């Protein structure tokens, strides 16, 4: 369940923050595959390219409370209008 993607994000957070702070990252198979300004853009792109459950959309910030919410699929899909 996306644990590899989440682990990649936290392991590489300092470097990711330098490049992508306050951006939405699509992480798949241990790599950032695309970067967006909004969650909606990231979700629309990811759903057009990948199967649900095979990618992580992660907001790139230092706040551990925000980054810990990835487990809940509703967090990822909840407010996006497709």
Instruction: State Rg.
Output: 11 Å
The run of helices and strands is HHEEHEHH
Distance between the termini: 23 Å
Tell me, rounded to a whole number, the average pLDDT.
82
Number of helices: 5
Parts with pLDDT < 50 across at least 5 consecutive residues: 68-82
Q: Give the tally of β-strands.
A: 3
Count of discrete domains: 1
Bulk shape: globular
- Name the helicity range: 40-55%
Quaternary assembly: single chain
- The main sheet orders its strands as 2-1-3
Largest sheet: 3 strands, antiparallel
Find the structural class using helix and strand composition.
alpha+beta
Q: Indicate the proportion of strand residues.
A: 15-25%
Which descriptors would you attach to this protein?
single chain, 82 residues, alpha+beta, 45% helix, disordered C terminus
């Amino acid at each position: 369940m996306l644990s590899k993607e989440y682990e990649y994000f936290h392991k590489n957070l300092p470097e990711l923050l330098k490049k992508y702070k306050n951006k939405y990252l699509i992480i798949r198979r241990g790599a950032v595959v695309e970067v967006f300004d909004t969650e909606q853009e990231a979700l629309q792109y990811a759903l057009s390219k990948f199967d649900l459950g095979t990618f992580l959309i992660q907001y790139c910030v230092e706040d551990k409370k925000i980054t810990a919410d990835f487990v809940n699929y509703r967090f990822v899909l909840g407010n996006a209008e497709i």
